[in-house]
Amino acid sequence: MNLMDSSHSNPMSLCSQADSQRTLYPYVTGTSVIGVKYKDGILMAADMGGSYGSTLRYKSVERMKPIGKHSLLGASGEISDFQEILHYLDELILYDNMWDDGNSLGPKEVHSYLTRVMYNRRNKFNPLWNSLVLGGVKNGQKYLGTVSMIGVHFEDNHVATGFGNHLARPILRDEWHEDLSFEDGVKLLEKCMRVLLYRDRSAVNKLQIAKITEEGVTISQPYSLKTFWGFSAFQNPTVGAEGSW
Amino acid sequence: MQRKVALKITTTLCTKNGCLDAGTIERVQSLAFLIPQAFVANTQRSLHWFLRLRSSSIFQVCVMSKAVVDVPPKGGFSFDLCRRNEMLSKKGVQTPPFRKTGTTIVGLVFQDGVILGADTRATEGPIVCDKNCEKIHYMAPNIYCCGAGTAADTEAVTDMVSSQLQLHRYHTGRESRVVTALTLLKSHLFSYQGYVQAALVLGGVDCTGPHLHTIYPHGSTDTLPFATMGSGSLAAMAVFESKYHEGLTREEGINLVSEAICSGIFNDLGSGSNVDVCVITKGHKEYLRNHQLPNPRTYVSAKGYSFPKPIEVLLTKVTPLKEKVEVIEGGDAMEE
């Protein structure tokens, strides 16, 4: 913190010297979010866990929220920074509505706004510690994009944050195709979330699936996935060599 | 006996100037009683240390007795050169990059036995140094082992345990068991405390049934129905977790293993090239080297390479070189 103070040699009006703080590490974090494009729009899945370091502190954190009429935002990373982003977007949508000109901000515009916010915060060494997934439909055009905490942004047919990049994207690359039906899309997302549940230590078995179409946003009620632990090697791993492990 | 030896040493001690005055002699003789203690450790270095601690003037120690022996190191790594390496790296000397197998290796248990799979890329930092290396190593006729991590370590460790298993087979007259290989590997890796960077997937079928184990560089092991290791392990594990079930047939098993390795090849930068598969069943094994080649050369000229029109041969003349050069028989043989 002292470093940053000394580098601001001519204080600008907005910079308070004594108390400048910046995000050094995240505290309450959410794990991965996965999003896919399907026939009618975008499907997104995220679990409801908020971890405080290595303990699972909060088990009912909604990490996906609708933005305006046309977008859906999912976030992983620091939960307080996600709430701050929602605050900014609230203001953005409010000002947009106040124009009252029949236009509304679509997902592409919101994505662009978020990219600028994240990148500028990173340049000030005070990042919003999130990886965001933004999806939406406007005028029949589907849009799915992602922004990371340092401002890396791109759009794709399927995106994931955090551990989802390593575990879910290989599955999605193999099995995603154009014009998935709603059921197939949900099955695909559940497949990915199940692998994440097995192999990500900060995952929790309580997830929500959200869909956004031209009509609007629907976020499902929280539910759990079925898991299977009955492999015979798990029951008796030391067959043939009793006493070893 | 000890005292005799001690006294023998005392007489060869002399001060820097080379003369012994009365006071020095007394001091030296009192030391002589304490010297045998130094012999407990039995090295020249400890004798030096002992004398330095006890005496104020510098004695020139010339140890003539044969009781001092240099003890060979007891095993494990000797870290004597670490300080020098640190000093060199501070001065900018780069250590050469290790040849690693940034890798995807997998194994699964199917209804008749075990199937192992591996990619074939070996990397040296950012460079692919071997496009088609073999990562599935032979341990015994019924046991194979895939290796990830530092290539030299995986090769050496699997070779070593393979020969130990062979000797054991000669000794017992029986087929090797997978748990034998497992125990030999894990105790070796543990004694090196993780410095031998070999992460292994060991699979085989013996008289007690099919077995699949993973071994981590520090020496811990797991017994699993399906396993993946290496940098591409998450991509391969995603495929396994979503598609594995018990009682797979041979074709299903091979397909699933190939899919998992391909997932590693295409989604992980440290893995690439081709897919090797090894199927082990009771009494029979099949090593399918390059079972799949999903990375063929993309741009090949359709015409092939055509040489330009050959030059016409106008004249052929053969001159045996012996006529031009004098061959001296019985001269000096060329030094090797």
Automatic annotation (TrEMBL), chain A:
UniProt-annotated location(s): Cytoplasm; Nucleus
InterPro entries: Ntn_hydrolases_N, Proteasome_alpha, Proteasome_beta4, Proteasome_bsu_CS, Proteasome_sua/b, Proteasome_suB-type
Keyword Cytoplasm belongs to the record: yes
PROSITE patterns: PROTEASOME_BETA_1, PROTEASOME_BETA_2
Keywords, comma-separated and alphabetical: Cytoplasm, Nucleus, Proteasome
Top-rank taxon: Eukaryota
Main localization category: cytoplasm
Pfam families membership: Proteasome (PF00227)
CC per GO annotation: cytosol; nucleus; proteasome core complex, beta-subunit complex
Keyword Ligase: no
Listed GO biological process terms: proteasome-mediated ubiquitin-dependent protein catabolic process
SUPFAM superfamilies in UniProt: N-terminal nucleophile aminohydrolases (Ntn hydrolases)
Membership in a protein family: Belongs to the peptidase T1B family.
Function summary: Non-catalytic component of the proteasome.
Quaternary context: Component of the 20S core complex of the 26S proteasome. The 26S proteasome is composed of a core protease (CP), known as the 20S proteasome, capped at one or both ends by the 19S regulatory particle (RP/PA700). The 20S proteasome core is composed of 28 subunits that are arranged in four stacked rings, resulting in a barrel-shaped structure. The two end rings are each formed by seven alpha subunits, and the two central rings are each formed by seven beta subunits. The catalytic chamber with the active sites is on the inside of the barrel.
Protein name: Proteasome subunit beta
From TrEMBL, chain B:
Any one Pfam family match given in the protein's UniProt record, by short name: Proteasome
PROSITE patterns: PROTEASOME_BETA_1, PROTEASOME_BETA_2
InterPro entries cross-referenced by the UniProt entry: Ntn_hydrolases_N (IPR029055), Pept_T1A_subB (IPR000243), Proteasome_bsu_CS (IPR016050), Proteasome_sua/b (IPR001353), Proteasome_suB-type (IPR023333)
Compartment(s) of residence: Nucleus
Keywords tagged on the record: Cytoplasm, Hydrolase, Nucleus, Protease, Proteasome, Threonine protease
EC numbers on record: 3.4.25.1
Keyword Protease: yes
Matches recorded under Gene3D superfamilies: Glutamine Phosphoribosylpyrophosphate, subunit 1, domain 1
Catalytic activity as recorded in UniProt: Cleavage of peptide bonds with very broad specificity
Primary localization: nucleus
Function text: The proteasome is a multicatalytic proteinase complex which is characterized by its ability to cleave peptides with Arg, Phe, Tyr, Leu, and Glu adjacent to the leaving group at neutral or slightly basic pH. The proteasome has an ATP-dependent proteolytic activity.
Subunit structure: Component of the 20S core complex of the 26S proteasome. The 26S proteasome is composed of a core protease (CP), known as the 20S proteasome, capped at one or both ends by the 19S regulatory particle (RP/PA700). The 20S proteasome core is composed of 28 subunits that are arranged in four stacked rings, resulting in a barrel-shaped structure. The two end rings are each formed by seven alpha subunits, and the two central rings are each formed by seven beta subunits. The catalytic chamber with the active sites is on the inside of the barrel.
Protein name: proteasome endopeptidase complex
